[in-house]
Write a structure and sequence with these properties.
The protein has 14 helices and 15 strands. By secondary structure, the chain is of the alpha/beta class. Among the domains are: 189 residues, Tubulin/FtsZ, GTPase domain (Rossmann fold); 107 residues, 2-Layer Sandwich (60s Ribosomal Protein L30, Chain: A), CATH 3.30.1330.20. Strand 8, helix 13 and strand 9 form a beta-alpha-beta unit.
Length: 436
């Protein structure tokens, strides 16, 4: 055999080794609102993405064009939906957990779309997320929160479900309907108001799928995405910006800053890890990329913990898309909860710090009782100056989660006024530091 033949054979074998599978993605709508969101997705050009719907409502499933459908809770709801009862939605999902788990075999990334506040979305979505996570998939949830006019009970169910989702998902991206409605004109219809959330869900899902599927000058692949979500239970920062025409970079940055997904109070803190994906045309210069990165990292993170992805699309000119995805370890949790017995406030166990060393990888805030949650606390909350007596500084109480700021009450409806939970003390809502 000649040298040229050996080279040809070796080259062919080496090329074969480079061929790999693409990221296997499944988008699952849970409940009526989630199924509607999946129905409206525009993913025709995205290969390797499968769609599925899970619901307790047989009629809604039959009217959906999605091919892969699963009706849960037949013995509980008889296919007539959960009727707004989240407990029924949860029981329906738990009763068919094996069938739900079968949807996620061999899947790398799962998007869960749901509307919180109702029965199936609030009750079943956390169970679906847990089954997907147990199957080894990275789980990202886009969820809508109810309008204020829908009542305190739906708001309470939505908040409870949001907390449960954060325990099992790698990222949870909430979309408050009240905030999205502010983007509409006064003559917008009710259908327009509900469709606004689906539009943003579509943009969010497509941006992440594009990030993983398109080969760019600087790739953000699935392994990079997985590494960013190393702590379940943390808060997720997510924003999108788009512009075209003259001055499109500046306009895209302004569009990003006005993104409703970034206008939530919990996003006022900078992210611990930041992924930035930029998609532009052949005219996108390195100076413009640097301008984007400088503005994004200054507002949302730091260059030291930021990963850049850049894709050049030869079919476009004078336009750019920016996708910002960040994670923070604040309120990250590993939950070990047992049923709480009712206690008067004075009997609550004292808090104690474990691994409070400044260099500890994961300081933990614990209660003296095993009945309480075990939560990680951001290490910045535990930093103190070495000599307390020689320097002037102010300590802060360590409130470990938004849900617990209300105190230890019985399960009652929240006192919400104009989107503000009045049960949360004023100094917490306004960020006032309390000296101790």
């Amino acid at each position: 055999m000649s040298d040229s033949e050996n080279f040809s054979k070796s080259d062919t074998m080496f090329s074969g080794d480079l061929e790999g599978e693409s990221t296997r993605i499944k988008i699952v709508g849970v409940g009526g609102a989630g199924t509607n969101a999946v129905d409206r997705l525009q993913l025709d050009s995205t290969a390797g993405v499968r769609l599925a719907a899970i619901n307790t409502d047989a009629q809604a499933l039959n009217s959906s064009p999605i091919q892969e459908k699963l009706m849960i809770g037949r013995a509980i709801t008889r296919g007539l939906s959960a009727g707004g009862e989240s407990d029924l939605g949860r029981k329906a999902a738990e009763g068919d957990s094996d069938a739900i788990a079968g949807l996620f075999q061999g899947v790398d990334l799962v998007f869960i779309l749901a509307g919180l506040g109702g029965g199936t979305g609030s009750g079943a979505a956390p169970i679906v997320a847990r089954q997907a996570s147990d199957a080894g998939a990275l789980v990202i949830a886009f969820v809508t929160l109810p309008f204020t006019i829908e009542g305190a009970q739906r708001h309470q169910q939505a908040q409870d479900a949001l907390g449960d989702l954060r325990k099992t998902c790698d990222a949870v991206i909430p979309l408050p309907n009240d905030l999205l409605m502010e983007m509409l004109n006064d003559d917008a219809t009710v259908l327009d108001a509900f469709a606004q959330a689906d539009i943003w869900i579509d943009r969010g899902v497509r941006s992440i799928c594009t990030m993983l599927s398109q080969t760019g000058l600087i790739n953000l692949d699935f392994a990079t995405l997985s590494k960013a979500f190393c702590n379940q239970g943390g808060k997720t920062l997510f924003g999108l910006g788009h512009a075209e025409g003259e001055g499109y970079v500046k306009k895209a940055l302004e569009d990003l800053k006005s993104c409703p997904l970034l206008n939530l109070p919990e996003y006022t803190r900078k992210a611990d890890r930041l992924l930035v994906n930029i998609v532009g045309g052949t005219d996108l210069s390195i100076r413009q990329v640097n301008e984007i990165m400088s503005a994004v990292t200054e507002q949302f993170g730091s260059r030291e913990n930021t990963i850049l992805g850049a894709v050049i699309d030869e079919s476009r000119q004078n336009s750019v898309d920016i996708c910002v995805l960040g994670t923070t370890d604040v309120n990250g949790a590993r939950y070990a909860r047992k049923p709480l017995r009712k206690k008067p406030e004075h009997e609550l166990p004292p808090l104690a710090l474990e691994s409070a060393d400044e260099d500890a990888d994961e300081p933990v805030l614990k209660t003296a009782s095993a009945n309480q949650m075990v939560r990680t606390v951001h290490r910045s909350k535990l930093k103190k100056q070495k000599d307390d007596r020689d320097t002037d500084f102010q300590e802060e109480f360590l409130f470990v989660s938004d849900e617990e700021q209300r105190g230890y009450f019985e399960k009652t409806e929240r006192n919400v006024f104009e989107g503000v939970d009045l049960d949360v003390p004023t100094f917490l809502r306004r960020g006032v530091r309390i000296a101790v």
